[in-house]
Each structure stands twice: as C-alpha cells, then as structure tokens.
Amino acid sequence: MVQKKTAAVAVNAAQMLTRDRDLLPPDRFMNREIGWLRFNQRVLELAEDTTLPLLERALFLSIFSSNLDEFFMVRVAGLKRRLATGVPVSSRQDPREQLREISKVTHELMERHAACFHTSVAPALAEAGIRIVRWNDLTTEEKQQMHRFFRRTIYPVLTPLAVDPAHPFPYISGRSLNLAVRVCDPHTGRQTFARIKVPPALPRFTELGGQRFVPVEDVISAHLPQLFEGMEILEHHAFRVTRNADLEVDEDETDDLVKSLERELLRRRFGPLVRLEVEETISDEILTLLREELGADEEETYRVPGPLDLSGLAQLHELDRPELKYPPMVPVEPRVLAHNDFFEVLRRSELLVHHPYESFATTTQRFIELAASDPKVRAIKQTLYRTSGDSPIMEALIEAARSGKEVIVLVEIKARFDEQNNIRWARKLEMAGCHVVYGVVGLKTHCKLALVVREEDDGSLRRYCHIGTGNYNPRTARIYEDFGLFSADPEVGEDLSDLFNHLTGFSRKKHYRRLLVAPHALREALLRQIQHEIANHEQGLPARIRIKTNSLVDEEIVDALYLASRAGVPIDLWVRGSCVLRPGVPGLSETIRVRSILGRFLEHSRIFVFANGGEPQVWIGSADLMPRNLDRRVEVLVRIVDPGQRSRLMTLMDLAMADSTSSWHLNPDGSWTRFTHDEEGNPLVDVQSTLRGDRYLRVVDD
C-alpha cells in the first residue's frame, strides 16, 4: 500500500516539476563559462600552495596553461561562432557581455598565473637548483654551448618571413610560439617587420646542463643577426595565437565521415583567432601591427610577463628529483584476482575497481588481453573514445582479430583533440580484420564498454562485461580517478549485447535491465529518481541525493535539484569543474552542499546515489550532467547491486563531503572557498592521500 502511495506521489512530483520551474527565480543559474574558469582558478591555487611539492606546483602551472588553451579553442570559439552566425548563446545573458566577462576574468587569472611563476615557483625552483634563466644570465661557456646548439639543431629549420609588398603577412598557426622582429637596413634606413616561428618540435626550454634551462625563443633571439645578416635588429618580441579548434561535420550531408573529418582537421589549423598573447614589453607599434594583421581586438589581447606558454613547465616535472614530487604510488592488484583465474572470479561475483589506486594494467588491460589470447573466447566488442598512441589494449584487439576471433570496435573519431589518433587506430584495426564502426549518426559515443563472449566448459556461451567511468587509456589511467565494474551477470550481458546491436545496427531500444542509456532514457530516469526522492521525503521515508560529476550545467537537472531542496531533501554534490547551481540560497537550495576536490589525480568518475526509501540505488558511469551528455551522446550508467560495493561508493561520497575533509566549498555567489585546516589549525583529511595509502581498499577487500 505504501509503495502504491509513494508511486502516486512521484507522478504528482513529475507534474510539479514542469509546473514549478517557472516559479523559480530567474537568476538561479550561474554562468557556465565563468564556472569553468573558476575551476581552472582552483588548479592555479594548487600551484600557489607552498605546502605542495615544488615540481608538482610547476606542473599545476603547466596544466592551468593547457586548460586555458583548450577553453579558448573550444568554449570561447564556440561563443564567437554562434555570435557571428546569429545562433542564440544564452537566453539570460547577451553574448557580447558574456565574452567581455570572460575576457575580464581571464585577464585576471593570467596575470595571477604569471605572478605565481615569477614571484613564487621560479624563485623556489632556483633555490632547489633548478633554474630557468634568460639569455643575458648565461655564462660565457653556456652561450658558446648554445651557439653550437643553434647552428646544429635550430638554424636549419628556421624560416624568417618578411612582411612587405611582395610578402604578405604570414599565417600564424594556433598555439605556435613566434617572434615578431623589426629590422632596419643600415644602407637605406628602410625598416621591415618579420616573423619567425619557433619550431614546435623543440623542447619549450633548452637544457644547459646542471638543471639549468633557457627559453628556446631566447636562443633564437640571440642569433637574429645570423638570420638577418647585415641588418640592424631594432626589436623582437614573443607572441602566441590561439585559434578556433572546434570541428563542424554535418554527418547527414556526408557519405564518408572519416574523409570529411580529415578535411575538417586540416581546416582546424586555419580557424579564426580567439586570443593573442604578447610579452608585456612589446612596443605599441608592433602590437598594433599584430592586432591589425591578425584581427585581434583589445579584449582578445593579453599582455603578460615572459616567457609565454608556461605549459612547457611540464618538461621540468620529468627531472629526476623525487624529493620535489609526490611520493611514488604503486597501484595494487585486487586481492581477489591474485593467483585466481579472472573469468572464474567474475563467475562468482562482480568486481568493482578504483583507478589509479587499483592497477589498470592488472584489471582492465589484463581483462582485454586475456580475452584476446584465450582460445575459448569467441567475440570481443568494445567502445573506444580515447586511448594512448601505443595502446596495449588496441594491440590485443588486433591480435584477437588475427587469431580468428570476432572483434567489433566502435571508434569515436569525433573525440575532440583525439580525432587523428583515433582515425589511425581505426584504420589499423580494420587492416587487422576488426569490424570498425563509428557509432550513431549525430551522436558521440562516450560510454566505456567491453563485452567478451566466451565458450564455457559445458559448451554454453557466457558474456563477461566491463563498464567504466574512464577511457581505455593506460597512460591517463595512472592519473585519472575512475571506477570500473566487471560483471558476468546475465542481465548486464543482455544489456550490453542489446546496446552494441543498437550502436552497430538499427534499433530504437530505450529501456534496459541494469543500464541507463543516453540520449533516450538517462535524462528521464534521473529526473524520475529525483522526483521519487521528493515523494519519499514527503512520505517520511529515507530520502537523500548524492552525486559526483565533472560538470553540473544542465538546467533541467539543476531545477529538479532545486525543487528537491525546497521539498527538504538533503543533497550533496561533488563537482570537479563547472557548476551553475547556487547552493545554500534561502528558499531555493538550503539543503544543497557543493564540494570540489582537486589534487594529484584528476577526479573523473561519475557516481549517483539515491536513498530510495532505505534501499539505496547506486549508479556509476560515463555521463556528466550537461546537455551534450544527456541529449547528444551515447552514455551509460550501470546500477551497482552488490551491497558491499554500494557501501564502498557511499562511504567515498560521505568522505568527500565531510567537514573534516580538505576541499573547496561553493558559495551562493559562485566563488569557491578552500578549506585545508580546521579551526585549531590541524590539517583536514586529504581524500586522495587516504585512498593512495590503500587503507580503504584493504578494508573493502577483506
């Protein structure tokens, strides 16, 4: 009777969601792009944290730079493109005003980033014996060494390009480092502008020996007289351009997606400018010339102290200075797999693994490699979104196909910035005899799935499955935090078979047994579950929502969470990146807490926990709470049924949200406050260090 009543209330809650959204305040959403910039600000705060190992701080400066490049190449570029074509960007903010706000915040962050390097990280590196020096600081011996290096390695590949009536202003490729040079002919007095592109194959910082480095542009600048022999060098300045790198392929209008994408990749190099970075010492004359030729307005121009492109600081992290890095971590192998047959383990029970604390190589990679070499395996089906250039998993699939197994690989060739790598793998897989497909027209296939069909001793066929929150990439698996579920449950096997048939063939299947699949059912299911929590709370049953996601920007989901909060449901949100929800607003989100954790590892897993009246529903999967994930991608969540595994995930959520844990807290105005110590000055618990010690994993395995 109670269940029927609860279900009826849930139906009413669904009707209320549609009705009550219009009653919510219009300023309830924060700006998504500014939210992302605040995420990158948190990365910068790690670089500013003097308690962290020094080379890790340098690496965070590098990550900040790389992140910001991608933000401009995709997010800012998208805003500009939509503005130029008249497509609405936001019903709540004028696109021009949004771009102005982005420019203001970005200028502040880039200045702060440069200050962190010059006043904190660089001096600390020097004190530790690692020095980035400019040309004038080199010793005579070092200059001689660089003269030889220049003639041998740099000079042959340099091409100075003059600008005059016979030589138009050259094209400046995206993310390239360049020198703007003004020279004068001493005989005629004529002045000329020239551009020199720094060869991208060169290391960002040239090693002098003894852990001393000089920016590569300094080496080139010191040898300009050799490039412009007989000319007087009047001035030279480094500059850098960021361009639109978002791809547009109309899949409905092409007969060959791969060829169309390759053509678009070539055009990516010539995308419109979205940012011009120059050294703050640049003259007004040269800056005016660059802005006119490149079409950069004031808001797109960023003057910062040199050296530019500090993403190159990642080079320093490769130094053999373990005392300046995080302590080494050796991922563990789940005890249940030690000395046991992998497939036999899965026949007994499902296995939940947590990377990078548990080894990717001895779990996920081993699963595919065993399937590829096992003569009893008949077929392997797998999705591929991102992987490394030398992926052992892809090599295993190739060997499986060559040995006669049926191998089907769904390669997402539209995975941003991995398009070319995935095209290469797709062709290599096809040449080996694998069946390669590219998913569903109009959608990106983002789910992480592997299905192995194996003949058992009794002659029957059994399906072994892997569903993950992260990519099949051995390299990123060492630094990305993710979960993976291995299962031989017939229901999961049926689900994956149905889903692969949908992806490789034609079907309109919407509902599965243990899976929630976007774009056809995931949004609806999440909204229904939130509404169910509202109904349970109103009936006095246990009600609570806990979600871990990379981004929370979907307005319909946010509104559903607001309504749940107004009904009194406690809500905990663990969001790594951008969040448009305002927590703690009286009458709107008083029961909502939002936390963010950044550190040594990139928090990447997605977890959804619903109290469900005392019988918790726990899901993991690939989907973030963004319109693209819920409406324009194939995403998968799998329901966790093992009570111990559910408890493990809920305990992790509670640990992250505890006041005793070090984290950032989101404020109603969109700012984030970092908490690292309690009121007595004692350090708060570091989630990643706790898991890195593997204490939690040992308890769970026991």
UniProtKB/TrEMBL annotation:
One of its GO terms (molecular function) is metal ion binding. Transmembrane segments: none annotated. It is an enzyme of class 2 (transferase). Mg(2+) binds at residues 386, 416. SUPFAM superfamilies: Phospholipase D/nuclease, PHP14-like, PPK N-terminal domain-like. It catalyses: [phosphate](n) + ATP = [phosphate](n+1) + ADP. Residues 29-133 form the Polyphosphate kinase N-terminal domain. GO terms for cellular component: polyphosphate kinase complex. GO terms for biological process: polyphosphate biosynthetic process. An intermediate of this reaction is the autophosphorylated ppk in which a phosphate is covalently linked to a histidine residue through a N-P bond. ATP binds at residues 67, 480, 576, 604. Keywords: ATP-binding, Kinase, Magnesium, Metal-binding, Nucleotide-binding, Phosphoprotein, Transferase. Residues 342-508, 515-680 form the Polyphosphate kinase C-terminal domain. CDD domains: PLDc_PaPPK1_C1_like (cd09165), PLDc_PaPPK1_C2_like (cd09168). The active site is at 446 (phosphohistidine intermediate). Its cofactor is Mg(2+). It holds the Pfam family PP_kinase_C_1. Residues 141-316 form the Polyphosphate kinase middle domain. Its EC number is 2.7.4.1. Catalyzes the reversible transfer of the terminal phosphate of ATP to form a long-chain polyphosphate (polyP). Belongs to the polyphosphate kinase 1 (PPK1) family. This is Polyphosphate kinase. It comes from Thermobifida fusca TM51. The gene is ppk.
